[in-house]
Amino acid sequence: MTTITPELLTEIRSKFAHVEACPFTGPRVFFENAGGALTLNSVVETSARFAAIPDNQGRDNPASAALGEIIAKAREDAATFFNAPGGKVFVGESGTELLFRLIADACLGTPEGIVLGSTVEHPASRSACARWAEVAGKPHVLVAHDDTTGVVTPEVYAEAVTEDTRVATILHTSPVTGMGMDVAGIAKAIRAKAPEALIIVDGIQHACHGGIDIASYDIDGYVVSPYKVFSRHGYGVAWASDRLSALQHDALVGGPQGNWELGTRDTGAYATFSDVVEYFEWLGSRVSDATDPRARIEAAGRAIHDHEAALTNAMLHGTGNLPGLAEMEGVSIVGGTDNPAREGLVSFYAAGRASPELVSALSEHGIRTHTRKADHYSGNILTPLGQEDCVRVSLAHYNTEAEVAAFLSAVKRILG
């Protein structure tokens, strides 16, 4: 196994648009990846190419047939990326919209019983469960995450799950704390008491960090937002198991059985997800000797994890002669300092300093970060901590230790 070397990192960065500069403000360090990762140059090129094609799927002409083949390949590529045996891969308006659709069908298509989730979840799944559990007449039960670590464990789910749990949701990684959950362990805990429950996972924040393995999870739905995994805005990608797809859902009367998609799809959206999968395969070929596409994707995920762990460690504990956030007086780290669940993200707040002011000051130093407030997006994490806001610093594998150093230098100057 090869790590991401400085030489490889330079090559990686060359594959992304606007790595070192914002098209509106000029040079900057991009630490706002949880809000939307950088876009692959190949995705930009593919988007432009397909935007110009006038033909649609399902027509009797060679162009239409070619579009159908591109969509079929993209579905196969996504299934390989997810390691998803069986089931269906399809695109929708966004990751949030797809979570709402999967959860709605699961709530409406199952017998009377419980809808189970957790307090750590993003509102994309929590709001969907709240709405559709009520429509279906099912209680919506939330298990509590640990405020200190930012994690909800299989053991906590095991205590809450009952035999009549019909639908369960899991957040793979939090976009506020950056902490990843044990999806396989949680699913196993749910199945131990409710083997027929439909389990749906929000993988939106996790996807760009690699390591999706649906075959090992024993779940029924998994959703990602491609703009957070090196593609573009305007679509989401979902995988649904055969039994979830067999439930009644919005569809055209007389249309294909089990079809999830409504109306003509954007072939370019599918094609750009193939670009993402191709990139992971390329990276895997550079950090391993693997030749199988799935093995390369797995190798890429391990290399991404290790590189991002090194960067977050430097951010927390310092690099060179610069102190890390954990060593700065008055600075608190959301989720704790040395948390093994952390995935490429550090959220912090400083005593006596409003987080929006810190984000603005960092921007003036050429560092792009983001404020998370105790609102409908992040209140579930921040309110129990008695905190109105925090600074979210989110990175990806194309970020460098030099960028971390620039960030720490800026924070040190700002905090005095």
What does this structure look like?
- The protein is α/β, with parallel strands linked by helices.
- It folds into two domains: 6-39 and 293-415, Aspartate Aminotransferase, domain 1; 45-278, Aspartate Aminotransferase, domain 2 (3-Layer(aba) Sandwich), CATH 3.40.640.10.
- Helix content is 40%, strand content 15%.
- It contains 13 helices and 15 strands.
- The chain has helices at 6-13, 41-51, 62-82, 95-108, 123-136, 154-160, 183-193, 242-245, 267-287, 293-317, 355-364, 379-382, 401-415; strands at residues 21-22, 26-27, 29-30, 88-92, 114-118, 140-143, 165-171, 198-202, 221-224, 236-240, 331-333, 345-350, 367-368, 370-373, 389-394.
- The strands form four sheets. Strands 4-10-9-8-7-5-6 form a seven-stranded mixed beta sheet, with helices on both faces. The protein has a four-stranded antiparallel beta sheet with strand order 11-12-15-14, covered by helices on one side. A two-stranded antiparallel sheet has the order 1-2.
- Strand 1 and strand 2 form a beta hairpin.
- It is globular.
- The model has no long low-confidence stretch (mean pLDDT 95).
- It comes from Salipiger bermudensis (strain DSM 26914 / JCM 13377 / KCTC 12554 / HTCC2601) (Pelagibaca bermudensis).
- This is NifS-related protein.
- Keywords: Pyridoxal phosphate.
- Residues 29-407 form the Aminotransferase class V domain.
Shape: globular
CATH superfamily of the largest domain: Type I PLP-dependent aspartate aminotransferase-like (Major domain)
Indicate the CATH class of the largest domain.
Alpha Beta
Mean pLDDT: 95
The parts where pLDDT drops under 50 for at least 5 residues are none
Topology, number of strands:
15
Our measurement of the CA-to-CA distance between the termini, rounded to an integer number of angstroms, reads 42 Å
Q: What is the CATH third-level topology name of the largest domain?
A: Aspartate Aminotransferase, domain 2
Order of helices and strands: HEEEHHEHEHEHEHEEEHHHEEHEEHEH
Count of separate structural domains:
2
The major pleated sheet works out as:
7 strands, mixed
Strand order of the largest sheet: 4-10-9-8-7-5-6
